[in-house]
Structure formats: C-alpha cells, structure tokens
Amino acid sequence: MGRKNPNRKGRNLPRENEENVRYIIASVTQKEVVFHDDNSRNGMFDLIVTGPDSEKIAIECVRATDPRMREIGSMVKRGVPMDPYALVLDWSVRFNLNLNINGTRETLPYLLQRLESCGVHSTHIVGVSEVVERIFDEMYELGIESADAFRPSSGGNIQMLPVGIGGCVNEMGTDVPEWAEEFLSAPARSDVLAKLENADGFLHREVFIECDMYGVPWHVADYLCQQSPFLPDIQPKLPKPLTGVWLGYGPFGVRWNSRGWVAFDARRTVIRSKPSTDGPR
C-alpha cells in the first residue's frame, strides 16, 4: 500500500514502486540501498545508496507516464472479455485517449464479431453497407480509431495499442540523452530537483526515471524495451544538482553515472558500459 502523504506529488512513485527501484539499484550496484524518505518532513529524497561519503548516492524516484494511459494499459493487461462473442480472427485495435474503458470491455468483442459476420476485416475499407457504417460509428464513439484483423485464431485475441505508438526504431539510443535532459528540466520536475538540492553531504545525486511506452517517446521506449546492444555516446546536460540518471524499463535500462552510459539489468550483472566520447550539449 502506498504512503498516504498529501505533500507527495502524484507523478512521484508510491512506496511499492520505490521498493522495486530499491531492489533494482541494489542488484545493479551490489550495495545496500535504504529508504530515506520516512515522511518525517517534507522535501525528503527517496533512497540512499550506502557506502563511504565519496561513494554515497542520493536518489529521487519519478515516473514518466501518462496516468490516463496507465489506466487504459491496465485494462489491456487484464484483457477484453471474449464470451459470449467468440471471434474467428485476431484483431489489432488502435484507440485514443478518450477511450471509454468500461464500454470497450463490454461491447468491443461484440462489435468485432459483427464485423466478422459481415465479412469485414478492417475499419479502413470504404464503400461498406449502412450496417457496417453504424458499427464503425459505434466503435469511434468508444474512442477506437481503427481495427484490423491480422490472422485466424482458435479463439480470437484483441491486441490493443494507443494511436501514435510506433515509428522508426533508433537502436543507437542517440535520442535518449536529449529526452532525459528535457524531462528532468521541465517545470514539473522542480520538486524532484529541490529534494536533491537539499541532499547535504552527497557528492552524487541521481534520479531514477521509471519509463513505459505511455510516458516516453516511442523511439526512447522502444530503445529501452528492446535492450539494444548499443549505448549512447553523448553526455546528457543534466540540470543541477544532478550527477546521474537512470532510465528503467522494468528491471533493465540504461544509466548515466557521470563517467559514461551503462546498460543495467537487475536480473544479472551489468555487462556493458560506454564512456562518453562527447561533451554535454
């Protein structure tokens, strides 16, 4: 259960997420990581990586996500109930931020089944009957932008993705430093920086950003989730007082530690690092 503190901003992480971050950092650094924010006062940063004074790290945790998209994503993970409208085909469905979650769970399988019965396998086709047009309209009113059948199946699966997810893949990670700069320099992160500004006695002050496909640009999210074999070679221009940043996508991701970029995976030992060959932007 998350801590009930009215002074905590919703964009920061509830305690259970901080525990996940604590585990990741401890596994990667092989050091003890303890909670610092005990709610005894406002403005406390979240975690401390223990060690000698020259090695201790103050860490604040933050999430890069869209709350509405997380709600929709939760629905997607639970799945859209199939019964009693069994589908013959698998469907790929694109939705917008206005998606009616409950309405979609209740009626989408039925609407797709009606399309199948009409012999229609895509909402992109034109010249359809009035009956099919009404089905398209009902789907649009739910917040569904498109639907396409892509393969036969024994029971029917519905793959749901938000519009705008997809595009060119940048496996070199060259967009990562700039995005981290912009995200951490945004006014919404002023409280994050303020907490670390007050971390007296710490030479190292870092932010752990919990990322997912709903809160970061596609080219950054795809780079992180694919665990590309390449690392960025540009030093990010982090706002003061930051000396490092972690971009986590589940248990893995990349980290700038003031000397270079490092790929990490809490499930195994860090295996790749790359010192910067370029200065800050």
Short description:
The protein has 281 residues and is an alpha/beta fold. It has helices spanning 15-29, 67-78, 101-117, 130-142, 176-185, 190-197, 218-225; strands at 33-35, 47-49, 57-64, 89-95, 144-152, 158-162, 204-211, 244-249, 252-256, 260-265, 272-275.
Structure report:
The chain has about 280 residues and is an alpha/beta fold. The protein has two domains: about 15-65 and about 170-275; about 85-155, no CATH class. Helix content is about 30%, strand content about 25%. The chain is built from seven helices and eleven strands. It has helices at about 15-30, 65-80, 100-115, 130-140, 175-185, 190-195, 220-225, and strands spanning about 35, 45-50, 55-65, 90-95, 145-150, 160, 205-210, 245-250, 250-255, 260-265, 270-275. Strands 1-2-3-7-8-9-10-11 form an eight-stranded mixed beta sheet, with helices on both faces. Strands 5-4-6 form a three-stranded mixed beta sheet. A hairpin with a 6-residue loop joins strand 10 and strand 11. Helix 3 (about 100-115) runs antiparallel to helix 4. The radius of gyration is 22 Å and the shape is elongated. The two termini are about 40 Å apart.
Blueprint (SSEs and pairs):
Layout: H1 15-29, E1 33-35, E2 47-49, E3 57-64, H2 67-78, E4 89-95, H3 101-117, H4 130-142, E5 144-152, E6 158-162, H5 176-185, H6 190-197, E7 204-211, H7 218-225, E8 244-249, E9 252-256, E10 260-265, E11 272-275
Parallel strand pairs: 3-7, 4-6, 7-8
Antiparallel strand pairs: 1-2, 2-3, 4-5, 8-9, 9-10, 10-11
Helix pairs in contact: 3-4
